[in-house]
Design goal:
- The chain is an alpha/beta fold.
- It has one domain.
- Helix 2 links the parallel strand 1 and strand 2.
- The protein is globular and about 45 Å long.
- GO terms for molecular function: hydrolase activity.
- It holds the Pfam family Abhydrolase_2.
């Protein structure tokens, strides 16, 4: 099944049928939907303004982004107690996105109450 092809068709239909500004299209998802949103954004970055998701990872992340890739804003949320997708996989995904987007500095981690917030963004 060509899931990414299906999403391209849904996006094209949505843009043709509704008053949607193409440059403001974001993909989002939870768990498997997060994984699909990340994959779509990586392989079709020219079609999305960014991606935001929760509790997923970028499966089968390549060493380098596709040649057609354009830097893409990414917002990832993940809990350290997730028993389905480990936090370390989410950390790896965040590091992969930072590399694809050309971020040069290491992640900046700040503590907000009981939560750590890790931000990648310098030099991107």
């Amino acid at each position: 099944v060509d899931d990414l092809g299906f999403l391209r068709l849904v996006l094209a239909h949505t843009l043709d049928s509704h008053d949607v500004i193409a440059s403001r299209v974001f993909f989002a998802g939870y768990s498997n939907g997060c994984m699909m949103a990340q994959r779509f954004a990586l392989e079709h970055s020219a079609l999305v303004a960014g991606v935001g998701c929760h509790s997923g990872e970028l499966l089968f992340a390549p060493d380098a982004a596709p040649s057609s890739f354009t830097p893409t804003p990414v917002y990832l949320v993940h809990g350290s107690r997730d028993s389905v997708v480990s936090y370390s996989k989410a950390e790896r995904s965040a590091a992969d996105w930072a590399r694809y987007n050309g971020c040069r500095a290491p992640a900046n981690t700040t503590l907000h109450g009981a939560y750590n917030v890790r931000t990648y963004g310098e030099g991107c």
